[in-house]
Amino acid sequence: MDDYLIGVLSNIGVISFIALSAYLLLLTGEISFGQQAFFAIGAYAAGIATALWGWPLALALVWGAAIGGAAAVLVGIPTLRLHGLYFAIATLAFAEMVRILFELFRYQITIDGELVGPDGADGFRNIRYIFDNNIDAFQFLLLIYALLAVVLLGFVLLERSRLGVIFRMIGEDETLAGLQGVSIAHHKVLAAGISGALAGIGGGLYAHLTTYVEPRIFDVMLGVHSLAYGLIGGLGTALGPLLGVLIDIGVLESIRALSGYRMIIFGGLVALLLIVRPRGLLDENVVHKIGRFWRRISPWARRPGLNTGNRNNLTGGRP
Amino acid sequence: MVDFFQNTIDGVMIGSSYGLLALGFTVIFGVMRRLNLSYGPSIMIGGYLGTVLYLNHGAGPLVVAGAVVLGAAIAGVYVERLCFAPMKAGAGIASMVSSFAIWMQLEQAAILVLPRHTYPFPPLATGATLEFGPFFVRIDHLIMLVCALGLAAAVQVTLYRTRFGLALRAIIGHPVAAHLVGINVRRAMLLAFAAASAIGGVAGFLVLAVDQQVTPMFGMWATLKGLIAMMIGGLGSVPGAVVGGLLLGVIETHSQWYFGPQFRDLIAYVVLFAFLVARPGGLFGRAPSPDITTPQKA
To answer: Is residue A142 part of a domain?
Structure first.
């Protein structure tokens, strides 16, 4: 693979994490304009861990995810009773606070006679872990997609679990979910925490991919884009946001001949698409139809009509 | 003490532009119950139209003002037709994301027409000031404040004293019922949208005339400032929009004076966050309103 293709694919992979984090919140019915905050926190935390503290990459990524998740829980608790636009603007306000704080954040130490670390608005240079450890671009690409595969597997399991059903149920009708005995507060904070951790991993990978981060990357544009990916690709499956990223970054990069007009074409296409499919390309209906088709042709799937078990039933099999 | 009052005066003056931006926003949100992210970029399109007339034809301030308002209204109608009119009830999130896509489109269109980063914009009253004792007030700022108060009063009167306003309030209350009693809901919404964008156009012209320059970033700035002022004032409240704008202006000027420019934005967002958590309805708002605030159905 040539470097250009590796670069584009790495970008798609890394941005998929923040798109998935916004998607998870969309499942629970919340619109967040602020996932870029946890992406930024993950990027800085993981970058500081490897570049300043000399941690191994794996530990640094976990650390970034943990800090991102913790921050999301801290925001999730006071914003619990906010919905819709109110929640969206609160997350936006929080993300902008984080961005400005990173513009003020200086933490530099001398390593090998060179100052390393975040330098306010000038950004955080020389996150050189992958060069220092001779990891080439292709290997890092594999790492990104291995982690993405793990996350996707997590989503598949989530969709088949009681927890996934509860998340979607809260997204459909919070009051009704509450009446079924679901603890809304716990599950919403949990969803916020997981989504923050997802964005945090993405941020950590991003920092090591580009070796340089600065606060202005993590602006509202990134947040609204990551939200839009799920809606373009579809809210029926975790592959939806990935499809959204693929269409945006993939298509934008591939029709470079149209540069200058690409946002005009792309913006128009998205607007038209959302008229026809307000819940994206792979919405719940499409996913359901594909699932039905698969069960019809697959020799392994359990036949519909027979007892398909109560696994997806909210009562978990109890009467 | 003189500094304190001078800062407060400056804050009120700058805040009147936020109030104007919030006023247009609140009309759209009040009627549609949907968020139009393309609100600022529509205004920017108007600003670019004004700049083109100014640069190529030497148009005067009045012509430019008309062009900005008209351009913003036309761009607003385009957004309404594409992102709001065709959407079914309950697809509030799709409308919002769609308006974001159009934002990208409008920004790119502006860059295509005028590719440099900044372009000059005709001033209104080249920084001339009035003196009141120890205090100074810029004349163009004063015009801004008068326009904000005047337009807010006009919107309030339109909403509560005219048949059109009654129709709009009926739609706000219950779109289906409004349709059943013979109100042309789609036309009323389009008109409200165009009017709201035109109000934004007035705000845009005044701000650009004070800045004397226009950049593609103006769209994002206008959307964010209008949104913050609207949320502080209270969703869907006309006096709230103006007071929220003025308050935001005062908070910003004071924080800039005492702590510096980075803290100006930081403190504005902290105040916004605190308001949302402690008092989501804002200063003048009622209980959180329906549609976009309730989960959408497939």
So the answer is: yes
